[in-house]
Every structure is written in C-alpha cells, then in structure tokens.
Amino acid sequence: MSGYSVEHATRSSRVGVAVIAIALVVLATAPFWGDRQTLRLLAELFTFVALASLWNLLAGYAGLVSVGQQAFVGLGAYLLFAMVILAGVHPIAAIFIAGPIAALVSIPVAALTFRLRGAYFAIGTWVVAEVFRLLASQISVLGGGSGVSLPASVVIAMAPTRTAREFELYWLALGLTVLVLAAIVMLLRSRHGLALTAIRDNEVAAQSNGIDVTRVKLIVYVLTAFGTAMVGALIFLMKLRVSPDTAFSVNDWTAFVIFITVIGGIGRVEGPIIGTIIFFFMRQTLSDLGSLYLLIMGAVAIVVMLWAPKGLWGLIAERFGWQALPLQRHLVSTPQDKS
Amino acid sequence: MPAILALESIAKRFGAVVVADGIDLSLNEGEALGIIGPNGAGKTTLFGMATGTVKPDSGKVLFAGKEITALPPESRCRLGLARSFQIPQPFSGMTVFENVVVAAAFGNNEREKTVYSRCADLLERCGLADKANKRAGGLTLLDRKRLELARALATKPRVLLLDEVAGGLTEHECTTLIALIKDVRAEGVSIIWIEHVVHALLATVDRLAVLHGGKFIASGDPHTVIKSAEVAEIYMGIAADA
C-alpha cells in the first residue's frame, strides 16, 4: 500500500502567490511614491476588485445572477452616513457595523427573491434595489432625494491633514479589499468551497451527491451582502457625499461589475482582478471619447463573450492549467518506503 | 424484513406522455435488479423519482421502510441512495479527485480530510488513479462513466442505481466493469441497474424486470424473462444477443 497526501499549491500558484505578495508590498507603499491622483485611482480600483469578486462569488459560483447588488452598496453607504451623522459613530467603525446589518437585511430579501429562478431572480433583485433607492429618498434627515454630505467636522476629525486622511482612506481601501479577497479564498478552500465549486459546475449533480444547494446559496447571498455593504460604505466615505441615485446606481455598481467579471473570467477568483485592471485601463484611455467609450466597452464585452466565454483568465487557465491561487486539491502519492 | 427501496403506485406523466403508470417496485437488501426496456419506456425517469430529482404525480417512495417521497435529493443521497447518471454529469472544472471528494464528504456527511484516502482507493478501483489530477471536463466518455461510478460509490451507498454504465464499452472494459459491480454487491450494496447491454445484466443481476409504456410487463429470473415472448416482441432482433 502506498500512502497519499493532498496538496493545494502548484508551480503556477507559487508564482501567483509570489506575484500577488510583491504587488501588495508595492501597493501598500503607494502613498510614498504615488501622487494624489494615482492614490485616488488605485483606491477606486481596489473597491471595484472587491465588488466584482463578491459578485463573482454570487453569480459565478453560486449561480445567483443578481443585478441588484447596488441594493447593498447603497445600504452600506446610507448606514454609514446615518450612523455618522445621526449617532456620532466613527466612520471607520461604521464601515464594520454596516456589514453585519446588511447581512441581516439580506435574509428577508433572500426569502423573497429566492422564490424566483434565473432571469426572474435577476429582475427581482433589481426591483428590490429600486425599492431601497425609493426608501432612501424618503429619509429627510439624510437629505431625501438630493442626498447629504458628510459634515466637515467629521471629515476633519478623521485625520489632522488632508494628505493624512487620503492616506488613511487609501490604506483602508487596500485593506478592505485584501480582507474580502482573503475571505473568499478561505471560503473556497474550505468544505463549503468544495460544495460551492461543485454547484458552479453542475447543480443537479451537486444535489445528487448530498449537497444542500439552497442552503449553500443562502449562505453565499448573506456573506456577499455583508461584504458588498462594507465596500459600499467605504466608497461613499471616500466620496464624502451620498445620494439615492449614486448609491443605488445599477450602472456603477452592477453593470460595470458584471462587465469586469465577464471579461476577466467568471467563476474564477483571478477573473475579477484581471477584469478590473482591463476595465480601468480602458476607462483611463478611452474616457475622452465620451459616450463612444461605452460603445467600445460593449463591443469588447460581446467579443469576449463570443471568443472567450470563460473570460480572459478562463482562456489562460484552461490552455495552460494555471491557477494563480492555491485552490485546487491535488492528490500526490507518496512512495511506500516513506509511509 | 422491509424492502430497502420501494416504489408504491408511482405515476408520472409529461403532458400526454405517460412515463409511469402506477409502478410498484421493491428491492430487497442485497439484491441486484436489472431493468430493461425500449428507449422512452421511463427507465431514467424512474431513477429520477427514486432519487428525488423528478417529482412523481402520485405514489410513494420508501427507503428502508421509511417514506422519503418529500425528501430532497441531497437528503436521500445522505441516507444511502446513490445514482450514476446516464449522461455523465461531472463537475467539469474540478479535478477527478475533487469530484470524488465532493461525493464522499457531502454524500456521507464527513469531514473533508477524513475522506482523502478512501477517495484515492476508489479512483484506483475504478481505473482513474492516473487521472486523479486531471480536469473532469477533459475526460473521455469511458472515463466520465467511470467517474460517475466512483462518485456514486464514494457516498457509501446502501442502494446503488446505475443508469447505462456499460453502454459504449469494449468487451474487455465491460468485463472489468462487471467484476467491479459484483465486488460492490459482495460488500452488501443493493443494486438496480438499467442497461441495454443485456449480457452484462445477465452476468450480474438476480432478477430482471422489463419496463414498457410506464409499466413493468415482466419480472423474474433473468434468463426466463429474457426468453419470454413479450420481451422478444419488444426487443425483436436483440433477443439473439442474449
């Protein structure tokens, strides 16, 4: 009898982890080498990586194609402004309180939307987000339909200088994104991740092999709401102003996020990261073209869907068998004399 | 002693097509039952209703004497009712090994790490050891069928439902498969096997039933059933194969 061991890491994942580690060090020191403009752009990029990664978990793995995640972005944003303005909570603490509250809110939302399947679920989640937007515009203490700014006293209290505040927000964006990604990777490496990956590949077979598909989907939905609300709270803390139309924007928080995930590679952790880089590159180089930029983006999305339906990372991963993160379980047989 | 798996007056129709017309079926513990029937007779739907992926219009499903008609597929799997799909349904983006680990960990409700060695042994038994780290989506049809079987066995079933696992196999592969299934039986697993490859069934099962038009039209000793006039009529031209 020979022995067995199971390993996650492969050669490509060792390279991947090394590259990610180096990138993290470079990004963490950005305040010392980047100008104000660069920091702002990078912080925004991080929040999109986080949003797209969360949507990827939801749609790419659990098969829950929601077009209503702006509900939780906006909810997080409004929770932050409410806590800060009405209760005097520290903004950073408010980000971390917004997460669990949104998770709680997502449970009744799931009870409602999980009755719908496929396209109906997608539309249902959008309707819920619109309801949230309309509710937010009714809150007169938070400016009703026109929104509200963060009081100057709160902004000043965050850090002694404007530069210090910007550094703080930058590191917060990087930290939160790393936290979200780490949580997703840990989830996927766990027993739940095994179930989730099986559901991604084949729901019927997953059920027939003992996986409680509905329960796993509910867990993912709630966790995604948790993360999305925290990211939403941070985005609007950086913007210093919130309004129903910006906080619950289907364009910004869902359409772009879907674009990112689809071109990067849906159903793979690496996909949203690649997708966000491409999205920001296109936006920075093409934004002078006005609405033509949106047309080009649409064309790119169509081409990718036709020629690389699993996204750019999907193409690479299947061609070369690469994984940038050690997620897959590999069976290694150990020689007899060792065991 | 109650039957390990029983269907009681199960009925199912898809529009005007009747696929189960009050079917009664009972499988004894340790028994191997073969089911044959022409295409569209309702064989696969019968497995669907036994495992919970298809809801019968009326009737009951019992497992070890307890009614399970309302239970979802995952609960039935954990009770010990495993199935291999006629059209293989691999988790195509996962490795072959991971496919089996999923079935072992969730189908038998175990911790992931405790199932690793059992899964490795199963791959060996099913002839997939050298493909353990390959993506399941890249397997040939034969290997996909092997994987279906390995996954079903990984759930530690008390009842194993096999849906055309021998179709398309060479003579040698078929012999290996029969040996494997006999092995599984010897461990006390009860089996229902739907198959068009009649000689494989005759070599393995204790009882043979013929499904036609949503009803069992014959059931009994395999060799007697296969020679009966009705079966010969349905399987005209195939009868010589037996």
Overview of the molecule:
The complex is a heterodimer of chains A (339) and B (242). Chain A is mainly α. Helices cover 73% and strands 4% of the residues of chain A. Chain A is built from 16 helices and four strands. Chain A has helices at 11-28, 30-33, 36-61, 70-87, 91-113, 118-136, 152-158, 162-189, 191-201, 203-208, 213-239, 244-247, 250-264, 270-286, 292-307, 311-320; strands at residues 3-7, 148-149, 241-242, 330-334. The longest helix of chain A is centred in the middle third of the chain and has 28 residues, at 162-189. The radius of gyration of chain A is 21 Å and the shape is globular. Chain B is an alpha/beta fold and 242 residues long. Chain B is built from nine helices and ten strands. Chain B has helices spanning 43-51, 73-79, 96-107, 112-125, 141-154, 171-186, 198-204, 222-227, 229-234, and strands at 5-14, 17-27, 32-36, 58-63, 66-67, 81-84, 159-163, 190-194, 207-212, 215-220. In chain B, the strands form two sheets. Chain B has a six-stranded mixed β-sheet with strand order 6-7-8-3-9-10, with helices on both faces. In chain B, strands 2-1-4-5 form a four-stranded antiparallel β-sheet, covered by helices on one side. Chain B starts with a strand and ends in an 8-residue tail after the last helix. Classes of the chains: A mainly alpha (339), B alpha/beta (242). The interface between A and B is medium-sized, with 28 and 38 residues.
Task: Kindly report how far apart the N and C termini of chain B lie.
Answer: 33 Å
Largest interface: A-B, 28 and 38 residues
Counted by DSSP, the helix tally of chain B is 9
Structural class of chain A: mainly alpha
Indicate the percent of residues in helices of chain B: 25-40%
CATH topology name of the largest domain in chain B, in short, is Rossmann fold
Strand elements of chain A, count: 4
Task: Indicate the proportion of strand residues of chain B.
Answer: 15-25%
Q: In CATH terms, what is the architecture of the largest domain in chain B?
A: 3-Layer(aba) Sandwich
Distance, first to last CA of chain A: 9 Å
